[in-house]
Amino acid sequence: xxxxxxxxxxxxxxxxxxxxxxxxxxxxxxxxxxxxxxxxxxxxxxxxxxxxxxxxxxxxxxxxxxxxxxxxxxxxxxxxxxxxxxxxxxxxxxxxxxxxxxxxxxxxxxxxxxxxxxxxxxxxxxxxxxxxxxxxxxxxxxxxxxxxxxxxxxxxxxxxxxxxxxxxxxxxxxxxxxxxxxxxxxxxxxxxxxxxxxxxxxxxxxxxxxxxxxxxxxxxxxxxxxxxxxxxxxxxxxxxxxxxxxxxxxxxxxxxxxxxxxxxxxxxxxxxxxxxxxxxxxxxxxxxxxxxxxxxxxxxxxxxxxxxxxxxxxxxxxxxxxxxxxxxxxxxxx
Length: 334
Ligand SMILES: NC(=O)c1ccc[n+]([C@@H]2O[C@H](COP(=O)([O-])OP(=O)(O)OC[C@H]3O[C@@H](n4cnc5c(N)ncnc54)[C@H](O)[C@@H]3O)[C@@H](O)[C@H]2O)c1
What we know:
Helix content is 32%, strand content 25%. It is built from nine helices and 15 strands. Strands 14-13-12-11-7-10-9-8-15 form a nine-stranded mixed β-sheet. A six-stranded parallel β-sheet has the order 3-2-1-4-5-6, sandwiched between helices. Helix 5 (97-110) runs antiparallel to helix 9 and helix 7 crosses helix 9. The longest helix is centred in the C-terminal third of the chain and has 20 residues, at 301-320. The relative contact order is 0.16. It binds nicotinamide-adenine-dinucleotide. Nicotinamide-adenine-dinucleotide binds at residues 9-15, 35-37, 40, 67-70, 72, 90-91, 117, 119, 155, 164.
């Protein structure tokens, strides 16, 4: 079977995990690594390294990972699309929805496979919640609540907590609900500056689902939950503990669409199937898609751009104090 030739540009926290994941994945050759910082390159003795993308583009790659700061995603992505090289682009896809749509257009025009690093879909508790929710096991989704809190890394210097963390959860909300976000209200505060360090938002999805999002990097412990309210009760995916818990609704079942009321029921832990780490799932899906397998589970660039558009609306709402509609991608002129 053909082995895929891969490379990573940007050897910081995310890029290092991508490089280690690719080096360990069957059917993949990690051909080269690039970073302008010599110290970052020095962390990979024995690997071919380069200071930038031009050298990687001479290596006949089957795909390249972009794990550089968000502000640099677009130029690298457009260069890869232009070269016909498939790409895994870290989240957020780009700093603006426009830039995200330009990247999506470039890969669509070139007919080249690309995906965006919304790896939280592949967290075991979240993937199992999605599988069961999408199978209709819990009935209609009423609302979602997400919390993504932790210490201040000091690494992310080009965007605030919304584009760094909330972007994960606005992607999860649209994916779990199967509905795009229509509008957002939000409030944010900046402590370290210049960007927001804490943000709280309420999104209204097109089908009526509400999503409450909170994220900050001013919490001295890591807390990450995605909670789904349904007629069957509340499902809580905790990606730090690695658990999925069901608080059942003891109220008598009713016909679909009829509100049955909510009474405290049992609490049960849902068993999770063994699952690889989220980055390993991403690369396995990319490998299989490039080897002609199904690409259905790949997060699309349109999804990535939509998550950025929601986050932009969220920041507008926080700045104006008014609800902000989420901009939709304008169809390309005929
Ligand atoms: N999916 C996830 O869970 C996840 C986790 C962490 C980071 N990320 C994303 O990955 C990207 C990188 O974040 P990080 O936390 O690894 O940051 P980081 O600061 O740890 O690493 C960034 C690396 O990029 C290099 N770099 C800087 N400018 C560059 C340029 N112009 N060209 C090439 N390389 C350049 C730096 O030298 C550094 O080694 C961001 O977009 C971030 O949002 C995603």
